[in-house]
Amino acid sequence: MEYFLQLFFSGLSKGSVYALIALGYTMVYGIIELINFAHGEIYMIGAFMGLIVAGVLTSLGWPALSILALALVVAVLYSAAYGYTVEKIAYKPLRGAQRLAPLISAIGMSILLQNYIMLAQTPDFLPFPHLIPDLSFMEPYRSYLGTSDLFIVVTSLVTMVALTLFIKFTRMGKAMRATAQNRKMAMLVGVNVDQVISMTFIIGSGLAAVGGVLIASHIGQINFYIGFIAGIKAFTAAVLGGIGSIPGAMLGGLVLGWTESFATGYVSSDYEDVFAFCLLVLILIFRPAGLLGKQRAQKV
Amino acid sequence: MAALTIATNLKKSAIAALWLAFLTMPVMVIRVDTVENTIVWRWMHLVYMLGGSFVLALIWHFMMDRRDRGAAVRESADGEAEGRLSRFVNNPRVLKPMLAFGFIVAAAFPWVFSMYQTNILISALIYVVLGLGLNITVGLAGLLDLGYVAFYAVGAYAYALLNHHFHLGFWTVLPMAAILGSFFGILLGFPVLRLRGDYLAIVTLGFGQIVKLVLENWNDFSYGPSGISNISRPGLFGINYSVENATTYIYYIMLGLVILAIVTTARLKDSRVGRAWLALREDEIACQAMGIDNTRAKLMAFSLGATLAATMGAVFAAKTTFINPASFTFMESAMILAIVVLGGMGSVLGVILGAFLLILLPEYMRAFSEYRMLLFGATMIVVMVFRPEGLIKARRKVYKINTETL
Amino acid sequence: MEHTKNAVLAVRGVSMNFGGLRALSEVDFEVRKGEVVALIGPNGAGKTTFFNCITGIYTPTEGEVVAVLRNGKEKRINGMRTNHVCELGMARTFQNIRLFPSMTALENVMIGRHCRTKEGILGAILRGSKTRREEQQVVDTSYQLLKKVGLEHVANEYAKNLPYGAQRRLEIARALATEPFLLLLDEPAAGMNPQETLELKEMVIQIRKEFDVSVLLIEHDMKMVMSLSDRIYVMEYGRVISTGTPAEVSADPQVIRAYLGEETDA
């Protein structure tokens, strides 16, 4: 039973992080029908930013919780900036181009960012300090639910709730929904579509950064390649939930997290990544609309 | 007017440089070690970033201006706006002597240059064929296969395993690898028949990853990360060559295969099948409505591309005599895609040029080898933004109408 | 299924539901040999949906669609794949022109020949005499078709560079290349000026005679419809509300009520 709970909670926390990253994919796809291949790298960069902040502040003697807070803020700001810049360079010039062009550009950007970090920092794994303090009231649950896990789940939840409120009640949120549904019409009623698209990238990147810092703190190390794997898995989650659907991304993230957790726990841990890929392939073949998505008919 | 543009671009580039410097400052300047609790500050990098970004941004803005002006021209053009290189190369009076010259150089190469150089050229030739294979799937049929490297792996492991367990020779396995490849191509094709562009890309990416992961973990079958070594080189009627001669031998085998691949692709492009693929790429619904069986066309495209890749896999295994899953990553697929994209999707000459550029250039610029992948990524972005048709644009055949008989 | 003796296409009781939406409701329809039949109705009446049902893009929820081939054989074509429908001999054009933009005009028409030719991958690679002969035939036939629609001078021009009217004609040439017994034209005159429309009308009459095809067209241009068609079907909200000769239909009060009564400018 305890083993089950271990797997459950680790799946829950992993799933929450997948959900945070998946939101970026789903929002961008919903608005410009592009798979932002470089999104995983934004997540990775968020983690690196967190590390750098943590490193600098640690050497200055700051307390762990404050470091965590500042690391999160800086990571979010920087990732948002990266997301914004990536869109301006690699995607905006290709709006309206043939299908394959933006995708190939995205792949190129992904490779560029990976290698940029690798060269500017190091190809090796870098240790990431455990910034999430151990809270004493968690003691009795320590065997299956760590403070880290709890922290991740709660932070992710708060972030996602904030996002949902933003999308639902703010003007920009409304503009984003409108643009996702019908870009031309949104333009015609005066929505600044460029701004909306930039905002989408900014928000999505920020969310990914939160995930990046949290999970890096949990696992204890990062390297330039984590974005690739996490990216594909998060994309799987987004598709699983229904690409373009925000609650779908959250649901998909959790389902993926639990699937991976239980599969590696009860079946085999060697093939951990394979489960995600197989899940991805199966969904796209049998139910491309995902769990909460709508089938999009094509007019002939 | 021009002065205003220059001033605007200078200003924009300055802002861009500042922004990029800000963006990259933490990563470029600060190196932390949280275990030792040390920080290294590399301020020179900031200076490089500022300077470099400014220059690059300037170039970018000028190229953008050119692109936007060119777009207006292209819309109204009578005929296609082709790059000068494209037109130059496609001119038959340039093409024929160029091919002849190329052939002579290629035939004489191993005797003039060292074994090391020959090996490099063999690598480039392998990528030429890989590029041509992907060119069929992506360039002609428009099916973005990001897991192409899986077929390459199939061929390589087929030869390696059959050679290791049953001591089958290269020439015995080569056709088997090809057939196995075509089979796997159909196998991959079936599930993705109904998928659209980006989804197709991701699923094929997933397949590629699954293949690599299985090869890494199924130790009993594939010997895992340590791979398979001592693979036999190709022999000739039982003669086993020395390393040097074997290299020359493999070189000529590759040359033959390259010529075969070129002829195949060039002929397919302007044939009934090739046109069907192109129609499939342009508009699936109209294609099917005009009597073309999309399913069959897609499967054939995957299958043929896969056949070429698997064949190259076998050659690769024979050349390096050692393979392991690390050679078959997504980066390989991305590189082959870059070759096709850079060279010009659908253009045979373009792919050859692309392969040579992307494979040979890094070899001769060893100083920059660290930056190879970085430049790959940047190249892909730049090509798609400024020259999506690639270096050499794929041309459609101009048919001669036999007006006398009509 | 019962139908008129010289019918080439017979449709009985076809309905099409998309989830809760009933796009077509018990449609009976027939095209007879050598006829030009027009399908008219307000936007959203279900005309293109009907086209899609009989060409295999959709599978009708209810009803029968039967094609009578040139050799007299009957074939139920409900839900048959579009390429099979084309092979049988029913070729269509599209409301929103679906040409192959990066291929030349000649090649677009050559695509139409695909289902009537057979050289495969091996033939293409080896390029023996049989292949070369077939290729040449395809080129010649396609060129002839281009001439028929007046586009032979742009044979090697990329389809995307052609003017709108030329593109519409090219689509028709492409459809003809498949050697159909029934030609389905989806709003062929859309966006054309009166002169072009007149030329189109002449072309359709020519085509019917020369190629021995029957024609089914969706059209909004009333002048063209009335002067060209042998029979007309009028649809509204997924139902056929009237059918008959142009004279009969234009006098039908139902039709007048539905939407007729606006004439296109002379």
List keywords for this structure.
heterotrimer; A: 300 residues; mainly alpha; two-stranded antiparallel sheet; 2 strands; C: 266 residues; alpha/beta; Rossmann fold; 2 domains; 6-stranded mixed β-sheet; 4-stranded antiparallel β-sheet; 38% helix
Description:
- The complex is a heterotrimer of chains A (300), B (406) and C (266).
- In chain A, strands 1-2 form a two-stranded antiparallel ribbon.
- Helices cover 73% and strands 1% of the residues of chain A.
- Chain A has 11 helices and 2 strands.
- Chain A has one domain (7-232).
- Chain B has 2 domains: 2-76, no CATH class; 87-386, ABC transporter involved in vitamin B12 uptake, BtuC (Orthogonal Bundle), CATH 1.10.3470.
- Chain B is 73% helix and 2% strand.
- In chain B, strands 1-2 form a two-stranded antiparallel sheet.
- The mean pLDDT of chain C is 90.
- With 266 residues, chain C is an alpha/beta fold.
- Helices cover 38% and strands 24% of the residues of chain C.
- In chain C, 48% of the residues are buried.
- In chain C, a hairpin with a 5-residue loop joins strand 4 and strand 5 (74-76).
- In chain C, the strands form 2 sheets. In chain C, strands 6-7-8-3-9-10 form a 6-stranded mixed beta sheet, with helices on both faces.
- The chains are: A mainly alpha (300), B mainly alpha (406), C alpha/beta (266).
CATH architecture label name of the largest domain in chain B: Orthogonal Bundle
Number of strands of chain C: 10
The H-level CATH homologous superfamily of the largest domain in chain C, spelled out, is P-loop containing nucleotide triphosphate hydrolases
Assess the beta-strand content of chain B as a share of residues. Answer: under 5%
Strand order of the largest sheet of chain C: 6-7-8-3-9-10
How would you describe the shape of chain C?
globular
User: Sheet bearing the most strands of chain B, described?
Assistant: 2 strands, antiparallel
Largest interface: A-B, 67 and 63 residues
Number of helices of chain C: 10
Topology, please?
The complex is a heterotrimer of chains A (300), B (406) and C (266).
Chain A: H1 2-32, H2 39-59, H3 64-91, H4 100-120, E1 126-127, H5 147-169, H6 171-181, H7 183-188, H8 193-219, E2 221-222, H9 226-241, H10 246-266, H11 272-286
Antiparallel strand pairs in A: 1-2
Helix pairs in contact in A: 1-5, 1-6, 1-8, 1-9, 1-10, 2-3, 2-4, 2-8, 2-9, 3-8, 5-6, 5-8, 6-8, 9-10, 9-11, 10-11
Chain B: H1 2-29, E1 30-33, E2 38-41, H2 43-76, H3 84-90, H4 92-112, H5 115-140, H6 149-166, H7 170-189, H8 197-217, H9 219-222, H10 243-269, H11 272-282, H12 284-289, H13 294-320, H14 330-343, H15 348-364, H16 372-386
Antiparallel strand pairs in B: 1-2
Helix pairs in contact in B: 1-2, 5-10, 5-13, 5-14, 5-15, 6-7, 6-13, 7-13, 10-13, 11-13, 14-15, 14-16
Chain C: E1 7-18, E2 21-32, E3 36-40, H1 47-55, E4 62-68, E5 74-76, H2 82-88, E6 90-92, H3 105-112, H4 121-126, H5 129-148, H6 164-176, E7 182-186, H7 194-211, E8 214-218, H8 222-228, E9 231-236, E10 239-244, H9 246-251, H10 253-258
Parallel strand pairs in C: 3-8, 3-9, 6-7, 7-8
Antiparallel strand pairs in C: 1-2, 1-4, 4-5, 9-10
Helix pairs in contact in C: 3-5, 3-6, 5-6
